[in-house]
Amino acid sequence: MPRGRLRVYLGAAPGVGKTYAMLCEGHRRQDRGTDVVVGYVETYDRPRTAELLDGLEVLPRRTLGYRGAAFTELDVDAVLARRPEVALIDELAHTNVPGSGRTKRWQDIEEVLDAGIDVISTVNIQHLESLNDVVEHITGIPQRETVPDEVVRRAEQVELVDMTAEALRRRMAHGNVYPPEKIDAALSNYFRVGNLTALRELALLWLADKVDEQLDSYRAAHDITGTWEARERVVVALTGGAEGETLIRRAARIAERARGADLLAVHVVRGDGLSDASPAHLARQRALIEDLGGTYHQVVGEDIPSALLDFARGVNATQLVLGASRRGRLAQLFSRGVGVTTTARSGPIDVHMVTHERVGHRQWLPTFAPGVGWRRRIAGFALAALGIPLLTALLELARNDLSLPSEILLFLVLVVGIALVGGCWPAISAALAAFLVLNYYFTPPLYVWTIADPDNLLALIVFAVVAIAVSAVVDLAARRAREAARARAEAAVLSNLAGSVLRGEHPLSALLSRLRETFAQDSATLLERRPESGRTPEEQHDPRAWHVVDAAGAPPCPSPDAGDTHIAVGEDLALALRGPTLPAADRRVLEAFATQAAVALHQHRLAEQAEQSRQLTAANEMRTALLAAVSHDLRTPLASASAAVESLLSDDVAWSEEDEAELLDAAYQSLVRLDRLVANLLDMSRLQSGTLGIATRQLAVADAVPQALDGLDANGRVRIQIPEALPDVLADPGLLERVLANLIGNALHYNPPGRSVLVTASALADHVEVRIIDRGPGVRPEDQEKIFLPFQRLGDRDKNTGVGLGLALARGLTEAMHGTLTPDETPGGGLTMVLTLPTAEPPAIPAQSSAERPTPRGSIR
């Protein structure tokens, strides 16, 4: 059975007309003879939307009960039983009531689509998962109902229902969206012009990305490789040279002038993996392109112009930015270069050639590096010195049995063997010597340096050319093999480097240690220039201009020039090494180490700053809350006690014994409350400073609960159900009493009148769980951890009920006794606090089969 098709109406905000458009589409399809039903539509009492339900078949909803209230949801079974051609199902991101079978409505719609039924639905941009945090940052309102972007992207059609911010606010003011009592609040909060404009831009950009994906799919399906200038895309080509930052900034300015243009950077790596690009330069350029809002890409290709153009056409680029050639004029006579070749092949893609300070600063002739070591070269020359005379003597003996072509082939075999052993120069020398020997000994006239037959001359010339060519090819292959082996070794070193940094607790120290071990250095030091120092060459040698950030090995280098090898990392950092001098070929890996060291230092400092900011923020919040508490919560009982004592000391009024007792009781109660508040503050301070004294011993929970109730005004509103056989726990008696008193007092405060707080306990493995269960309003799952923050009273704006330390202190004291305190939802409504403490003696577990073992008890249900 073919899967149904999904069509989604996307809106920037509530009220733009998504449901209205969906119902209009339903009427259009019904008029064309399509079987259309309404599975679920929410009109929000909007008259014009409700009118569109007339004439459409509306399926009954499913009614569910939750927490004493009745809710209606989409009846998926009814839709499947009816089997229409098209079902209209509103609110794609809706969260179903518990008990519905599926958590989200989009999951219901997936089941309907799997049954082969087309679905038309609606969603607002703020409900898309990828934009949820962005919308919250813009509007300040979190969206708890979200739908994965992939669900909407899979839709066959996504249609934007658009409306300007001013038009939507006019609809709001006319009462077409919300009832009159909500209009002013909505217009001044969520539906501000700035919010609506930002949400509208998000919706347009998200839809543009989806359209772009559809365009790419269409081009790929129809094998279209040409550029379609639907959107400006600027690609900048990076070689790994120092000029890359200039090119990136130039490309960013080009993209800036084309509003909404994409910026991409690409670096082409040769297919053999051997590259002359600087890892340090590429790392900095990658960071720069990402800071400017672009993306970095790396592709493999032997022909750089073809690879660049293939990438540009693949991303549908419209402009390509290249650096002007660094080669000299003489080199350009032999090859047009990447820039000219790319421009000639670019077609409709505009190519920008950007000049920079490195133009013309490159040698046009390549430097020669032998492919074999000096020992093999000596062996090659020795083989040539011995092999040529020996082969000549053997051929002299067999002169009558061999012709000149056979003798040439035998000498060619010898030259190839010399090339395999000693490389290019011994083989070329052997080829020239063999040419002379063949001329003197085997080419008529013999034993003179002349050649009478032109065919023999041609044969010898061809022999020399082939011998030299084979020698060059063999040497090139050896050099490439050597470079590949070195690249493989470098990759292994960098892989080990990444692993050691990721596994280490201190990335910078681990990186320097790995660097020292890899290159067998005595020490590796990361130096930073002091802010007050200058940048003159003399200060490069002055240790007072530098300070050691970190070092591995001893002794560290006090300045960059004090090391045997040093690498500059930007203007203010340097990596200095002491030990054996490293060859120039190792500088590429050293640059990668240096770049990673700078990144590790930067991340370490960012982490320190974040931690300092967090501590300062927490301290500031604590200080502010404490001042608020002192200004009100502590002053209130102190003022009550002072007023009562002052009244008793007054000579103006003759108090009766009953009045005096009442005033004394008021003063006493106020002082008790003040003592409790001060004790909580002191204990919280000791907890945070780690100076709270803990003296745990074995005690029974059944004894601790009544003691905790003695200081509470429970009046029979607490029921205790603790088994007699409950194991003893390890806890501090005084602290456990404080914890239980705070938890039970909090439960009594929020428990509804006429209902009791239940205290139960049970043993589970090697700990005991004590549960304090109330039937109050409860706490949402996402807010459960917030109730343990100091000076917080979640949802309680009454400032006369304490400083909000009870639960924070209870958790801190519990954890100090090696226990845990976690909140849980009370079935049927309310909050359950689960206090877990270790038992005094772990219970002995008899040996049982898996079938006989009892199932552990879980949460109370």
UniProtKB/TrEMBL annotation:
GO terms for molecular function: ATP binding; phosphorelay sensor kinase activity. SMART domains: HATPase_c, HisKA. Keywords: ATP-binding, Ion channel, Ion transport, Kinase, Membrane, Nucleotide-binding, Phosphoprotein, Transferase, Transmembrane, Transmembrane helix, Transport, Two-component regulatory system. Its EC number is 2.7.13.3. Residues 629-841 form the Histidine kinase domain. One of its GO terms (biological process) is monoatomic ion transmembrane transport. Pfam families: DUF4118, HATPase_c, HisKA, KdpD, Usp. It is an enzyme of class 2 (transferase). It comes from Saccharopolyspora shandongensis. Its main location: membrane. It is a multi-pass membrane protein. It catalyses: ATP + protein L-histidine = ADP + protein N-phospho-L-histidine. GO terms for cellular component: cytoplasm; plasma membrane. The lineage of its organism: Bacteria, Bacillati, Actinomycetota, Actinomycetes, Pseudonocardiales. This is histidine kinase. The chain crosses the membrane at residues 378-397, 409-437, 457-478.
